[in-house]
Amino acid sequence: MRKETHDAYIRGVCMILLSAFCFACMNVCIRLAGDLPSMQKSFFRNLVAAGFAGFILLKNRVSIQVKKEARMTLAMRCVFGTVGILCNFYAVDHLLVADASILNKLSPFFAVVCSCFLLKETIRPFQAFCIFAAFGGCLFIVKPGFENTDLLPALIGVCGGLGAGIAYTMVRKLGMLAVKGPVIVFYFSLFSCLSILPWVVFHFSPMTARQTLFLLLTGLCAAGGQFSITAAYTYAPAKKISIFDYAQILFAGLFGWMLFAEVPDSYSIIGYVLVVASSFAMFLYNSRQKERSSDRKGSHIA
Q: How far is CA 197 from the centre of its chain?
């Protein structure tokens, strides 16, 4: 039994590392697609994801009907998720790939804050400390100041993390309402495509075959990342493997150096360390809290 549990853990780690690799590749493909509007890039990304999600729903004969009490939450997930993607794509186009990736990875901290206000979950002092430390790291990456020409893209990148954080909070609530993952992905991807479509139609920028290929690869990598991370959490609980998702920063930094000759400055590196260290500390804290809660329940039953 222990061996099976260990094997499942290893599979979970491998799948979440694959997810991090896919999302890093997605960001690279966004950049390689060249000088195209962020909305047009986002449209193709979500079009491929919607196709994959629709195929899974048809294959498994899953109903796309959503109960009435979950519709507003699903709508919020779609809106803020779309905002998050658009902001992230813009940041990737205008910042170092690693910088844009780490700003998007602020989403778990925003999710904790949003859960406090939207789901009435309590933020403990240590969690608050980790959140402030992560935002401190964010300041090192953003480097606010009027002389910083990357300030606007960096702030938009932070907004991308905020949008994703709110969206993940809505996903958590939808899970509580028993809405299935593929249904959420399908509606989100479809909404993103339809909401962006009018802009794409009236402001379409002609694309070369190379650009079209990289946009399709962006969608494929995004779909691979989504399915990999979903599989990861079926093998092992989030408290044990979620920290490995930050491998995306390492992949992004490596790809940025190899393909675009990008080298983060010392301030950005300090920011990376603060964000990742804060995430690791919160990861350990949440794991211990869950273990203590399980021990209390076990002793109560005994």
A: 23
Tokens of 95: 């910042």
Q: Cα–chain-centroid distance for residue 279?
A: 14
Q: Please name which of 45, 15, 82 lies closest in space to residue 238, comparing C-alpha atoms.
A: 15
One-character DSSP codes across 179-208: --HHHHHHHHHHHHHHHHHHHHHHSPPP--
Give DSSP secondary structure letters for the chain.
-HHHHHHHHHHHHHHHHHHHHHHHHHHHHHHHT-S--HHHHHHHHHHHHHHHHHHHHHHHT------HHHHHHHHHHHHHHHHHHHHHHHHHHHS-HHHHHHHHTTHHHHHHHHHHHHS-PPPPHHHHHHHHHHHHHHHHHH--STT-TTHHHHHHHHHHHHHHHHHHHHHHHHHHTT--HHHHHHHHHHHHHHHHHHHHHHSPPP--HHHHHHHHHHHHHHHHHHHHHHHHHHHS-HHHHGGGGGHHHHHHHHHHHHHH-----HHHHHHHHHHHHHHHHHHHHHHHHHHHHHHHHHHHH-
pLDDT tens by residue, 71-88: 998 999 899 989 988 898
Q: Identify the residue whose tokens are 């979903």.
A: 230
Kindly report, residue by residue over 223-282, the tens digit of the pLDDT: 888 778 767 766 766 556 666 777 777 788 888 888 888 888 888 888 888 888 887 887
Smallest CA-to-CA distance from 34 within 171, 205, 275, 220 is with 205
Count other C-beta atoms under 10 Å from residue 132's C-beta.
12
- Which of 66, 232, 269, 89 lies closest to 163, judged by CA? 89
Let me know if 107 is exposed, middle or buried by CB neighbors in 10 A (0-12, 13-18, 19+).
buried
Q: First-to-last CA distance in the chain?
A: 23
Cα diameter, the chain:
68
